[in-house]
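Model it.
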Amino acid sequence: MSRVYTDTIEPRKPTQDITLGTTGETITLPGNDLRVNTFKDKGGNTLWTSDGSGTLSSVNSALKGNLVLLSTQTASNSASVSFTTGIDSTYDVYIFKFSDINPATDAADISFQVSSDGGTTYAMTMTTSFWYMYHFDTTGEGVNYWAAGDQAQGTGYQKMVTSTGNEADEAAAGELHLYAPSSTTFVKHFYSIFNSNFVGSGSQGTELDYASGYVNSTSAINAIDFKMDSGNFDGTIKMYGLL
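Modeled.
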């Protein structure tokens, strides 16, 4: 076996490729690493690009997995948070993840509505249900249906959480799943699941809230808005597309 010792290998021309090995051979780098900023396959397709500090861009969609982060918004004493771009036919399922949702008003409820006109109006017709499980520090535990949290062909904002505390260490966290929002054939189904620091009626504790239903429209949904039923809120909301 022969060896070539060198510090730098360069092509004769800037546009010429350097080929290591031939078809069927394996190139081994024992005890070393291969460092490149742009990594491409044999067909010249970019798999990813690095800025040299570990931050990747131009990541090929085949490497991203099934859940793709599309947008992140941070509420800071905000009246509402809206996503008016990115909801289209690219993905069949959109998932919104909520972290540290802290209301300014004690015992407020976070809710949502959708739009088919890019966010000009949020008043689409829904039929929904809402139930919860709880364990409170003074009144025990249980499972209940909450009629005040549902809608029967209503056009109001749909509650996803009930009575979240507003102290500095209190918050709600959860997810909303919206299915086939761009369909012009079917109604749009959704469900949400949240856990929160519940406060109210002299009780305090943990509560797991479920809301589900459908938007009774065959118009494509292209925007969504989140707000508390009273006052402003802090927190982070991320929108994902599911392939």
